[in-house]
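Before a computer can learn anything about folding, someone has to put a protein's shape into writing. The outcome of that step, for a single protein, is printed below:
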Amino acid sequence: MKHYSYLLSTLLLGVALSSCGETAMDRPDEGTGGSTVPEQRELLLTLQNKLSLASVGTRADIATTDEKHIDALDIYVFGSTEIDGEYTFQEKFSYRVDGSPVSGAGTVDVQNGDGAAAVNPTVLLRPKKGLYIKLYCVANHPKLYTLNAVTPAYEEYTAFTPLVQTNPGDPANNQIKTPGIPTEETFKGLMTTVIDPADVTSVIEPALAMVGANTAAIDLHDFSLASRLYAGIKLTRSVARFDVVNQVETSRFTLTGVGMGNGRSTTTLFPLEAQRDADGNLITYPFRDVTGLTDVNNGVQTPVFYSYANDQADAGYLILKGTYQMNQTDAPVEVNYNVNFSQIKDGTGSYIEINPNHRYTVAITKADPYHIDFTLTVADWEEGSDLGSYVPSNDVATDAITVTGDGVYTAPTKTISLEKTVGKKFTLTTYSNAEVDAKVIYSAAGNAWLTVGAVQESDSDDDLWSKKITLEVTVNAGPFTAYPDATLRLTNKAHGTTTDLKVEGTDAP
């Protein structure tokens, strides 16, 4: 599958990843990217934060100052002689808020890094010429980890070794003498910090890890070109956020700590896929002390906890720790409450997924020494749009998906194959108990080769579901310079869970 990039001085590249909202990057007192030598090409990278004047006030309440801040940014560059060849590690560029250098990494120039709503931060880097390159950004997470399956244990990954070119100034004869380490595919599977249940300090706190990528190949073969290139990358948070609304005068419950049961230990970066511990088990997160958070017990919505994603089958739950005091004359009683992300009645029901870059708000309405009553709502962390109250049985019926027409569905991999011919289309049918949105997300911007039609709802012919969902996806008329891999995302509007199906374009026979 080919991704072409046009060598114009005003080249603008983009990626289809979720934005992280406003992002603040303070420029160091010392630290310049240096001058550009003939063997390098200037590339101005814009962190494309999704801002608008109409919703800045709302977003400021959604993402706290600490959550928006970038203390460290690492940009990993991968190179290949062929546009669709194997990409291996070429070089790394790093930024630190204190201006300190990073061993083995190139420096960058940061502009507009104060988090102002009207201006996006830009990072000027100077990658080496000679190859096609791809960019991967990791914010607030200088150390990456890999699983040693023999031990088994998660270990810091330190094997980064730049590739070596034979004749970088001669495109006709240039080859990669020594491939870099790691390969692009290995890098994408590296992981964030691993939660240690035995370490009380092993909690996730801002600044939060964020990731973004430009997977459309940028052509740096020609040494005669010196004009600046432009690229845009959006970042997405690697964790979910949990807010609590608790009015102690009403609930009689004072919240002091938050933990999580049946949680995941870490997450891969590209894509964000949460992982169990090294032994394959779910874990219990250490409690995060929230006694220092202002207004946490005064009825004000407060971010109290962050976690990696959870699959529906994990049956994850928050653990709220604190004291219960019915009357002022009573002695406070230490209590722990489990907030299950489920609603099971008479043995039936289901759990919801916990997704990264989402906010889950627990509003406590009533408590006693043995349990609490609460409501749970879900919102998109970026937009702040309310995705509805939690209804546990509203998930899309992934095991009942059927595809008819020109598409071929492979259920184990959730992949739909579709011929890249104008007018080819498939119809997808499934079930749900809530409204469903559908959209297509591409691995690279600029070649929207698919159109998804309106989601049609009808009465269900399955007793387990109230709605039958039908939608149509069609191949658009070009011309297209590439047919990037596409993701058909079905979003449950009741509580924000998503079901992703990969759509692969195939050549005509």
The longest strand covers residues 253-263. The chain has a mean pLDDT of 80. The radius of gyration is 24 Å. The helical segments are 56-62, 65-68, 184-188, 248-251.
